[in-house]
Design goal:
Elements: E1 2-6, E2 9-11, E3 17-24, E4 33-38, E5 45-50, E6 57-59, E7 67-72, E8 77-82, E9 91-97, E10 102-103, E11 107-111
Parallel strand pairs: 2-11
Antiparallel strand pairs: 1-3, 3-8, 4-5, 4-9, 5-6, 7-8, 9-10, 9-11
Length: 113
């Protein structure tokens, strides 16, 4: 199993980013996937999850409607669209195959002016 996140970087407050997670080594189209993040010094927290079909999912509690999870099963890729980014969104963002201890290495998102 391999999960590789990309798309992180430095962005100004109010800006947007799209993160991608490319998966391999398992049946991606049937796997529930999730995005998590870890702020320095804090525990990892879930952002949102999405079923294999994309028909079922749930956002985390803190998003305020700013983040959206989606997937393209033909490309074995999970996405996280983040809008109106805030300083406190600075973190390492991870994707995970839900229910398994399968994690990517993460991608750093830094929100700074």
């Amino acid at each position: 199993v391999q999960l590789v996140e990309s798309g992180g970087g430095l962005v100004q407050p109010g800006g947007s980013l799209r993160l991608s997670c490319t998966a391999s080594g398992f049946a991606f189209s049937t796997a529930t996937m999730s995005w998590w993040r870890q702020v320095a010094g804090k525990e990892r927290e879930i952002i949102a999850w999405l079923s294999g079909s994309g028909d079922d999912g749930k956002p985390g509690e803190f998003q305020e409607g700013r983040f959206a999870i989606s997937r393209d099963n033909a490309k074995n890729t999970l996405y996280l669209d983040m809008n109106n980014l805030k300083f406190e969104d600075t973190a390492v963002y991870f994707c995970r195959r839900s229910g398994y201890n399968d994690w990517g290495r993460g991608t750093q998102v830094t929100v700074s002016s």
